[in-house]
Design a protein that fits this description.
By secondary structure, the protein is an alpha+beta fold. 25% of the residues lie in helices and 34% in strands.
């Protein structure tokens, strides 16, 4: 039944009213409404549960912070879609989404030769003054923007990259067209909030939390990719399995197993292209 049909009793007691209401709204969102559905208005929730507007707002704020709900300016508050989860394996974005039963797609923002910044020159082992392809794309799953990718690739090693189909798996293009199968990568993860440009491209509110991955990928020990991917934190999460060997001194040990084009790893590697 909906909240209007069978209200949950909210009463003073050991558990505060906003916590009781938060739990009731969480159950309503998960069991009855489902992803993308709007929750009842503040006025309806106040009447249904017999609580104040401040209690309603505090409960909703808590669920927004937890990622279960999200606000759309001028429209209301909606149930969020479950986050996509990655176990940090080296595979294409397209492969990763299809494995989950989702349809991947790409919006190509631009591809052109440029002089890369110093950190990219060093990461790709380029000579001073050498050009690199700058490739910017938005990656989507079932039509929903998931990630913004800003990548650099050696221009001399990839002639005519701008004439290739870059709307799918770039790793497949590198392998089939240029004979460069990505087989290892180093990846660093951090968090930041979306600025105005990133938020617009990801169709996200300003300051949406982001998971940011910087990856340097190699083919036969040759650096071929420097890419920074910004994933919507409300739509993506990362799972890692840790063992006792990761607690000792020095860098964490990574166990690698090759299966076709994918290198499955326990702690490093990621989910782009």
């Amino acid at each position: 039944m909906s909240a209007q049909e069978q209200p949950l009793s909210i009463a003073a007691g050991p558990r505060s009213k906003h916590v009781q209401l938060r739990d009731a709204l969480a159950e309503l969102a998960v069991r009855e409404l489902g992803p993308d559905a709007a929750i009842p208005s503040e006025r309806v929730l106040m009447s249904t549960y017999g609580v104040s507007r401040s209690t309603v707002r505090k409960s909703i704020d808590s669920l927004v912070s937890d990622g279960l709900l999200h606000r759309v300016h001028g429209k209301g508050t909606f149930v969020s879609r479950p986050r996509l989860e990655s176990r940090l394996h080296l595979a294409s974005f397209s492969q990763d989404m299809r494995r989950r039963g989702l349809t991947p797609s790409t919006v190509l923002l631009g591809v052109e030769p440029r002089r890369p910044p110093a950190e990219v020159v060093a990461a790709l082992g380029l000579e001073d003054g050498a050009l690199a392809w700058r490739l910017d794309r938005v990656r989507l799953a079932d039509g929903q923007p998931i990630a913004l990718e800003n990548g650099w690739y050696p221009h001399a090693a990839l002639p005519g990259l701008d004439r290739q189909d870059l709307g799918g798996s770039l790793y497949e293009v590198l392998r089939s067209v240029y004979g460069l199968g990505i087989d290892t990568a180093e990846q660093t993860l951090w968090g930041e909030s979306a600025d105005a440009t990133t938020a617009r491209r990801l169709a996200a509110p300003l300051h949406t939390p982001l998971l940011v991955f910087r990856r340097i990928s190699c083919a036969r020990d040759r650096p071929i990719e420097h890419v920074v991917s910004r994933y919507r934190g409300d739509r993506y999460q990362v799972h890692m399995s840790l063992g006792p060997e990761s607690l000792g001194p020095g860098p964490p040990h990574t166990d690698q197993r090759t299966t076709d084009d994918t290198i499955n790893q326990s702690t490093t590697e990621g989910m782009n292209k």
